[in-house]
Hints:
This protein is an alpha/beta fold. The protein has two domains: 1-39; 46-93, no CATH class. 22% of the residues lie in helices and 32% in strands. It contains one helix and five strands, in the order H-E-E-E-E-E. Strands 1, 2, 3, 4 and 5 form a five-stranded mixed beta sheet that branches. Strand 1 (46-50) and strand 2 (53-63) form a beta hairpin. It is elongated. It starts with 13 loop residues before the first helix and ends in a 5-residue tail after the last strand. The mean pLDDT is 77.
Amino acid sequence: MPSENGKIGIGMTGQRKCAWILFVGVQMFLAAQASAQAVPLPDLPQARANNHVVSLTLNAVNENGRDAIAFEGVTVAPVIRPSPGDTGWRIHDGQLLA
């Protein structure tokens, strides 16, 4: 409970106490971030447009007993990068084309 001079607890006003708690919290957050190790992510496969058409081939595969879709031999979904003005998409299943 505040005393007559408006101070709470050990001589700090409520606003100053909040600022102190925020300052300590930010310092703890920054210390935790500094000790974290950054691991770079691998580059994802990409499909880009050629003559304003994005064309990519997906293959149905069975990897480790699980059905999956592969792009360029990797079972990671590709990043499809169309450009402004690209009008068409062609996605092939390489297993089904004759």
